[in-house]
């Protein structure tokens, strides 16, 4: 499924133009030592996200400043991340989207680990793999 940016949705819905501004929550704020301990391996690995039913494949690169970058079948994007209890929540910011944060991944994943979840919106199977190294990092 193609992503619709906030600006496109704003035009379609006739909403106020200020909705085109991407949220900047926590971007550029260094992660705390506790956050780094909980997510340590994601900072040196590549999170590969595959949705076979949707034909989507993404490589995600987390940074210690609460941001991430994606490269994948639907193009490149960036966003922010935060911890919420035992989950990691990500929010795409560029291109901006009118969607709530996606909270799923879980903490304490190790390099080489693979796990499967059901997408809470589409119920499609999502396969996560935390691969060693920064494979194909932009």
Written overview of the protein:
The protein is mainly beta. The chain has a single domain (6-132), classed as Lipocalin. The protein has helices at residues 6-13, 33-39; strands at 45-51, 56-62, 67-72, 77-84, 87-94, 102-103, 114-118, 125-132. It starts with 5 loop residues before the first helix and ends in a 6-residue tail after the last strand.
Structural class: mainly beta
Main pleated-sheet profile: 8 strands, antiparallel
Q: Number of DSSP helices? A: 2
Strand order of the largest sheet: 6-5-4-3-2-1-8-7
Q: Tell me the name of the CATH class.
A: Mainly Beta
Question: Architecture in CATH?
Answer: Beta Barrel
How large is the share of residues in beta strands?
35-45%
Q: Please state the average pLDDT score.
A: 81
The CATH topology assignment is: Lipocalin
């Amino acid at each position: 499924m193609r992503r619709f940016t906030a600006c496109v949705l704003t035009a379609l819905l006739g909403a106020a133009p200020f909705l085109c501004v991407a949220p900047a929550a926590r971007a550029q704020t260094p992660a705390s030592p506790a956050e780094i301990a909980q997510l340590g391996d994601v900072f040196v690995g590549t999170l590969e996200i595959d949705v076979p039913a949707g034909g989507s494949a993404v490589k995600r690169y987390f940074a210690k400043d609460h941001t991430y970058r994606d490269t994948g079948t639907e193009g490149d994007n960036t966003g922010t991340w935060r911890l919420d209890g035992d989950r990691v929540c990500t929010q795409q910011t560029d291109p901006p989207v009118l969607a709530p944060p996606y909270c799923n991944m879980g903490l304490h994943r190790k390099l080489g680990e693979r796990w499967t979840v059901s997408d809470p919106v589409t119920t499609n199977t999502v396969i996560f793999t935390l691969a060693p190294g920064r494979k194909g990092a932009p």
